[in-house]
Amino acid sequence: MTQTPPQIVIQSKDLDLTFQTNDGPVHALKGVSLDIHQGDFVSFIGPSGCGKTTFLRAMAALEQPTGGQLTVNGVSPDEARQQRAYGYVFQAAGLYPWRTIAGNIRLPLEIMGFSKSDAVARIEKVLKLVDLEGFGKKFPWQLSGGMQQRASIARALAFDADILLMDEPFGALDEIVRDHLNEQLLALWARTGKTIGFVTHSIPEAVYLSTKIVVMSPRPGRITDVIDSPLPKDRPLDIRDSPEFIALAHRVREGLRAGHDQ
Fold it and tell me: How do the pLDDT tens digits run along the chain, 262 residues long?
């Protein structure tokens, strides 16, 4: 009995994106083609200015491509946004200091018109998912940086979108906190089965988290390698000492170096 392959949920074909500036056009993305399947954890890695955040923002209808095709769940990113197909986690937690943690999580639910009782149930559920039970009445300044970022993830999960787009959410955190949140994110992904797109500058983070690693070159941003991870889905932190992990990190590093030399 043959298994049905996972559905393609995000697809780009020959995607171009050029910004017009006072100094002339900036070619952020050029000829980017990629399929992301349901349940994938895809990390985008590359040097600053390679277009990885621009690509993620295009998926979220925050940037408009100037060429090629990009679909999310088979429709345009803007239509997918209207269908609440994805949650987006920014680099900074972006929590409103005058709102409690529960109030921050409630904000998109208020905008989308969820009932008060439904919102309360959803807030309780996502606080538990990100291990912040009991912190709903706290204000952002009463939480550590790592806890604030988990609250930001909870906010993106609150309306239960199947896709989670994350732009370097742990980049500003120290290594110990980052390791802990990486473990928690993998556990969250395993529990929810969501499709995750994740931007990072860290090779170990990309290798530890991902089922697929997309290596990008400096501007104009192009994909130089797409690596399907052979690592098991169950990944303790000490897997980073394994020969398989080290070999995978080496391939990513070589891909980054090759892209830089082009």
Answer: 556 778 999 999 999 999 888 888 888 999 999 999 999 999 999 988 888 999 999 999 999 999 999 999 999 999 999 998 999 998 888 899 999 999 999 998 988 888 999 999 999 999 998 889 999 999 999 999 889 999 999 999 888 889 999 999 888 788 888 888 899 899 889 988 999 999 999 999 999 999 999 999 987 889 999 999 999 988 899 999 999 999 999 999 998 887 555 5
pTM: 0.90
**CB neighbours of 12 closer than 8 A, spacing ≥ 6?**
32, 33, 34, 55, 68, 69, 70
Closest CA to 259 of 237, 226, 232, 234: 226
How far is the C-alpha of 126 from the C-alpha of 194, rounded, in Å?
A: 14
Q: Where are the domains positioned within the chain?
A: 8-85+162-261, 94-160
Q: How far apart are CA 99 and CA 82, in angstroms?
A: 25
- Angle made by CA atoms 65, 107, 95, in degrees to the nearest 5: 80
Residue 79 buriedness (CB in 10 A; 0-12 / 13-18 / 19+): middle
Angle between helix 175-192 and helix 116-129 axes, rounded to 10 deg: 120
| Tally of CA atoms within 13 A in the half-sphere of 242 that contains its CB | 14
CA 62, 68, 71 angle in degrees (round to 5)? 55
DSSP H helices in the chain: 52-59, 77-82, 101-112, 116-129, 145-157, 175-192, 203-209, 243-261
- Domain 8-85+162-261, second-level architecture: 3-Layer(aba) Sandwich (3.40)
